[in-house]
Amino acid sequence: MGKITRIILLDNLKNKVVIFYFILLALMSWTSMMLQDNETKGALTILNVVLFIAPLMSMVYTVIYLYDSRDFITMLLCQPLRRKRVWQSLYVGCSVSLLAAFILGAGIPIVLYSDFSTALVQLFMGCAVTLVFTSLAFLTAMLTTEKTRGIGATLLLWLLFTMIYDAVLLFFVFLLSDYPIEKPLMGLLMINPLDLARFQVILKMDASAMMGYSGALFKDFLGDAWGIIVSSLLLLAWIIFPYALSQRLFGKKDL
Fold first, then answer.
1. Model's pTM, two decimal places?
2. pLDDT tens-digit readout, 50-84
3. 134 neighbors 91 (Cβ within 8 angstroms)
4. Rg, Å, the chain Cα set
5. Is 183 exposed, middle or buried (0-12, 13-18, 19+ CB in 10 A)?
6. Which end of the chain is more exposed for a tag (fewer CB within 10 A), N or C?
7. What are the backbone dihedrals phi and psi of residue 172, each rounded to the nearest 5 degrees, phi first?
8. How far apart are CA 231 and CA 211, in angstroms?
């Protein structure tokens, strides 16, 4: 198990896409922090970059890696290894390499130029978003057998969480503005992991005017402490459940 994990991890760390991802994050993060006139604006700029680029890279890279590694996975399964262990090794290899690229690329300028507590929250949320969308990529790879369909599904999920979901939600808020929809809307807002991550970072920065409608509802209903606890638990669920389901499907899948 340990040897297989190291092999997969090193293979991912040397991948050109992961190296490009690290360089891209480093350039955007250092530029954002050094060109802004205050640390809050720079941190918010990096937050938008993380919530836009990290999900895309995590999903697309992971799905492509899993499809391209099908022969290697089949070879591993011919050995006396449990499928659960093989799937765990693949997840650790993909997720740790993406986390390393994020922490080294975006984490260093965040820690150097931001308040330490705010920087920690932003780092944790960036890592959580990376793990969430890596888990979703593993599930997507198990639900689709063709590479093109898998990539298309990941792009659709990325568009759904980054753009479509909030746009549709705001449209219905506008249509139903005359009705008491705050409580149902809270449940719908909690479905999107990117909204959960955004809420935690902006709430920690005390930038309430920039929280938007979703963040304002979270703060109003849950308060600072409860908002952080609930959103953290929901993000943890977003990491665990898609991966657990993908592992279950992998255990039964005929490769």
1. 0.89
2. 888 999 999 999 999 999 998 888 888 888 888 89
3. yes
4. 19
5. exposed
6. C
7. -70, -30
8. 15
